[in-house]
Amino acid sequence: MLPLIILLAVLALIALISWAKVDAFLAFLLVTLPTGLALGLGPARVLAAVQKGLGDTLGSVALVVVLGAMLGKLVAESGAARQIAVTMMHTFGTRRAQWTLLGTGFVVGVPLFYNVGFLLLLPLVFSVVQQYRLPALFVGLPALAALSALHGFLPPHPAPTALVVQLGADIGRTFAYGLLLAVPAVVLAGPVFARTLRGLVAHPPPGLVAAPAAAANPPGRLNSFLSSLLPVALLAVVLGLRAALPAGGALGPALTFLAAPEVVLLLAVVGAGFSLGTAQGRSLAQVTGIYAGAVRDVAPILLIIGGAGALKEVLLASGASAVIASSLGGTGLPPLVLGWLLAAGIRVALGSATVAGLTAAGVMLPIVQHTPTEPNLLVLSIGAGSLFLSHLNDGGFWLFKEYFGLSVKDTLRSWSLMECILSVVGLLGVLLLDWGLRVA
């Protein structure tokens, strides 16, 4: 009976979001409350579990997501992201346009959310296409593959950050593993796959491909790169010092504090506020106004993450998690494969990569608790599954279709297959890395 209740809960969530078009946060609540009651929790315990799930999840995720959004918005609005893109094109030239735009997508994709990076890079892509008469999909797909991979694999993007917290992973190690996996996945889904699309002709609407307006006082090239990648640089320095210094030393507690993702991102936001803000002639009020706008942008995502945390807590409080662990363990599938399959199935049915990843993590949590599964790799496995087969129920599908002026068939042939390649190569990379860690 219990597996049936959980299956009906997942199906109801899919139906509410995908077919009834209910807001994802409201859908989570509408599913979580009756599910808790059906699993035997009394009304008071259901409400307590919902409150605890919301509080615990947002308490550990909100700072990272909000600070990451602040940094990304400042990088975009200051002109730093555009400076990075233009610099990359000037440095490596149009002969290597595919690889140049792929690298640009990687650099820009670390601080920027996918939609922001998409809208920022597309004008550059189309300007290169128009100026040098290159196939739009051939040069544009690698950049978007990089953006998509980072969105699915790497903190501080919302879904990977929430998965790290839910599954008890380490955000620094997950970032390092994710970056390692993202490179081959993006190369295969970007430049290699794009070579098969030369026959597809894009017809971008003229109104959507105007050159992006330059910022009034854009930062310099070096400033743009350093400010955008400041969290990565700070984390690398701190982790390097921790590895180099003897364990238990006097600096140990301070380095542990500085390595916390909240502290790293806070330092990056403060540093970028100066280097991309006040040092470029913006007032402190203007900088904080940009940060306030980032909070408004990310609030709906935080609510979805909180709703997923509430459902997870109901499953834990009712004891359903232990039953799920036993049932899934009986399938004989490795947990890393099982997590990918769950996320991929929900993604195909629902369209939202974020909801797919968070829902799959709630189901897989007991597996982590009852098996020696590496949580950092499970985060990446679920993240890879959440990218699988974007199609007609995904907003990203239509965004790509309209901007490139493609038919539905050609969008499935290009965008959807690109996402499948990212997802499958990501899973294979996770399994290979898991094998390597076990052997070592």
Automatic annotation (TrEMBL):
Keyword Membrane listed: yes
Entry GO MF terms: gluconate transmembrane transporter activity
Residue ranges crossing the lipid bilayer per the database entry: 30-50, 57-76, 96-122, 134-154, 174-194, 225-245, 257-277, 298-325, 337-365, 377-400, 412-433
Classification via InterPro entries: Glcn_transporter
Subcellular location: Cell membrane
Domain of life assignment: Bacteria
Membrane topology: Multi-pass membrane protein
Pfam families membership: GntP_permease
Keywords: Cell membrane, Membrane, Transmembrane, Transmembrane helix, Transport
GO cellular component, one term: plasma membrane
Family: Belongs to the GntP permease family.
Name the UniProt record assigns to this protein: Gluconate transporter
